Amino acid sequence: MMRRRPVMRMAATTAVVAGTATAVAGHHAQKNAQQAATAAPPEAAPAAAEPAEDTYEQLEKLGKLHEQGILTDEEFAAQKAKLLA
How many separate domains does the chain show? Predict the structure, then answer.
């Protein structure tokens, strides 16, 4: 009979640990589901790639116009500031 007690104690401990782990996992799953349900839907990300490339191309054009003397330093600076704002 002496051998049964350690086996039963180990079985009981295993059952308690497994039950606790299941309860904790269920709690976390429920908490995550509630947070997902109450979270605001993500906003659509602005299309950053296209305007950035467009801005770069426009800056190149402004630079060429400035180099050719078509734009003054002040005009170039003002147009560049508008693009980068």
Answer: 2
Contacts of 71 (CB under 8 A, 6+ apart): 62, 65, 79
Kindly state whether residues 52 and 31 are assigned to the same domain.
Answer: no
* Domain membership of residue 3 as a residue range: 1-39
* Whether the model pTM is above 0.85: no
Q: 58: Cβ–Cβ under 8 A, 6 or more apart, which residues?
A: 83
Taking the C-alpha atoms of residue 21 and residue 19, their distance in angstroms, rounded to an integer, is 5
Over 16-65, what HEC string results? HHHHHHHHHHHHHHHHHHHHHHHCCCCCCCCCCHHHHHHHHHHHHHHHHH
Question: Using only C-alpha atoms, what is the Rg of the chain?
Answer: 34
pLDDT digits 0-9 by tens, 14-29:
766 666 667 666 766 7
Say if CB 31 and CB 22 are below 8 A apart.
no
